[in-house]
Each structure stands twice: as C-alpha cells, then as structure tokens.
Automatic annotation (TrEMBL):
GO biological process: lipid metabolic process
One Pfam assignment: Lipase_3
Gene3D superfamilies for the chain: alpha/beta hydrolase
Chain ranges of the Fungal lipase-type domain: 84-222
Keywords assigned: Hydrolase
UniProt GO MF annotations: hydrolase activity
Protein source organism: Corchorus olitorius
UniProt protein name: Lipase, class 3
Length: 339
C-alpha cells in the first residue's frame, strides 16, 4: 500500500476502454435532462429535453434532496440495454460564486478504506450523506431484479459529474457491480493522486469529457510543485477543442493519456470560460433559469412519492410495468445500440 500511496500517476491499464462518440452524444442529453425543474415532465419523460437521442427512456426513480438542492434519476434505456443514472450539476443562484469557492478548496476528507486517499468533503457528502445515495441504490437494485445484469451507465455535469464518480465507485466497491461505465461532462477534480489511482483500478471504464476552455475541470487547482498533496484528475479525459480560422473552425475530440493530467489536453489552455462549461456538443447543461432551487410537480405525482421529515422525496414506480412495456416494444423489432 505504501508504494501506491507515493504514486503520482495512475497505472496503465491492460484492457483500455474505448471512447465512443455516439454514446457521449446520448449521455450528454441525459446529463442535460436531469436539470429540468418540472418533475412531472421529467418523471414521465415528456420534458423538452426528454426527446432526441434519449427518446423512450423509462424513469424508475427520481430523487430530490430539497434540503441540499440535489437531484438525480435512475431508469432503463432500451437502446443502450443499460440502467442509466444521471446527477444534476451545480444549481446555485450564482455559478460564479461556486467557481470562486473551488479555487480555495483544500483536500479535507480521508476516503474510507483507501489509505492515503483524500477527497473533496463537499462532493463526497453530496452523494454519501444525503437522500441521494439511498434512492439511487434502491433503484439500481430494482432494475437488477427485473432486468438482470444490465450495464450501468453513470453520468452528470459539473458537480453532478463529481457525484456520478463517487456513485460509480460505491456501486463497484460496496455493491459488487461489475459492469459500471462512467461519462461525465465538465467535472471538477475530486481527490488526490492516490484516490485517482484507486479509482482507475476499480472503475476503468471512465471518461471525463472537457470542453475547450471550460473553467471547472481546472478546479480545484492542480499544483505541479506539490503533486502528493494536490487535487489530481483520474483518467481518461476526452478534450473537445476548436481548430481552424473563421468559418472553417471545427471541433476535435482528443482522447488523452492515462495520467489523468495530460499536459497536452485541457491543461494546455487557460481554464477561464463559464460559457464553455454550460454547453457540450451543442447541448445546454444548466437549468432553464439560474436561480435558487425550484421544482414544479403536479399533485397526481404524490401517489408515486415518499417524503422524509426534512421534505426530501423520491418518486418511484414499479419497474415490472416498464418491463412489460419494453418487452412488447422489443417484440415489435427495431435496431438497438450497443455501447
């Protein structure tokens, strides 16, 4: 363990996951949809962002932690043959304030069971110590009971990406899931190099998509001269950047090395853009309006909900009804997408 604790770069993986552009375009739409505040439309998958590449998705559980302004959903995507988990990103009155706070955030929590691994207390707590974790694990268990061992795809944007990463590690280490894939967008750093090394061993099928000069993947800062004590990304980054001039500009997707901190990827530019943070692949990754936590829900949804004494609630449906519907659709034929 001591050797691992001193390691500054994650180990090379013998069975490298392959980045899939089509899958990225699908998962970014799930990461966008989870921002919707109309819970009726989100739960029934009829919202304006619940179409396109995610059409036909069936939500099993929608978890809303009102106390901490957090939101996530779990459901089944027939075209992916997978359970999809999506976490909402930063829902702050001012994202600028949140970004400024990250500049000064120090490593402040020892990750349980991983010697010398340290993580960001706030991101860890948002997943582990709120309503979110219980609701997610319950829904994943339901999905497995009815659909078997489907792939589990976990996604999120910004802070949602941080929560997605902790969720994937939790599912793998504590709940023996062996088919977990992660793809996040504009994710901040969440731990040190030792944590990154552990993470890459347990969840190797992970891609962090970063967009051009997006400021958030540069935070909390990586200090080159203090590599043992600084925050450190885990692999694998996929950097989206523009090349060309004038009307000939086009986007390139570069799959970076397995260090987590490839100096030729997003670290090669100044992370100074909030605009680049809020739109990936032409998809908006933010709420309809930036404001304090707000939800809209029709009274009829109360029949699907349970609420705790703090006002946090979970909307849940029996996946057996979804299974029947999907079996009927499957018998009708049609192509499927295999990631």
């Amino acid at each position: 363990m001591k050797k691992l604790a001193l390691e500054l770069h994650v180990k090379h993986k013998t069975d490298l996951a392959v980045y899939n552009h089509t899958l990225a375009r699908i998962l970014v739409e799930y990461a966008s949809a989870v921002y919707m505040s109309d819970l009726t439309e989100l739960f029934t998958w009829t919202c304006e962002r619940c179409d396109g590449l995610t059409k036909g998705f069936e939500v099993i559980e929608l978890v809303v932690d009102v106390q901490n302004c957090l939101q996530a959903f779990v459901g089944v995507a027939k075209d992916l043959n997978a359970t999809v988990i999506a976490f909402r990103g930063t829902q702050e009155h001012s994202i600028q304030n949140w970004v400024e706070d990250l500049f000064w955030k120090q490593l402040d929590l020892n990750y349980p069971g991983m010697p010398d691994a340290m993580v960001h207390h706030g991101f860890y707590t948002a997943y582990h110590n709120t309503t979110i974790r219980h609701g997610i694990l319950n829904a994943v268990k339901k999905a497995k009971e009815f659909y078997g061992d489907l792939d589990i795809m976990v996604t999120g944007h910004s802070m949602g990406g941080a929560m997605a990463s902790f969720c994937a590690l939790d599912l793998t280490v504590n709940h023996e899931a062996n088919n977990v894939q992660v793809m996040t967008f504009g994710q901040p750093r969440i731990g040190n190099a030792v944590f990154a090394s552990y993470y890459s061993q347990y969840v190797p099928n992970t891609f962090r998509v970063t967009n051009d000069h997006d400021i958030v993947p540069h935070l909390p800062p990586y200090y080159t001269y203090f590599p043992k004590k600084t925050y450190h990304h885990f692999p694998t980054e996929v950097w989206l950047y523009s090349v060309g001039l004038g009307s000939l500009v086009y986007k390139v997707e570069k799959v970076c090395d397995d260090s987590g901190e490839d100096p030729t990827c997003s670290r090669s530019v100044t992370g100074n853009s909030i605009t680049d943070h809020l739109n990936y692949f032409g998809v908006d990754l933010m709420c309809e309006q930036w404001r304090s936590c707000r939800i809209v829900m029709e009274p009829s949804l109360a029949a699907y909900g349970t609420t705790d004494h703090k006002g946090n609630f979970i909307l849940s449906r029996d996946p057996s009804t979804l299974a029947m519907k999907m079996n009927i659709q499957s018998n009708e034929g049609g192509d499927t997408f295999s990631a």
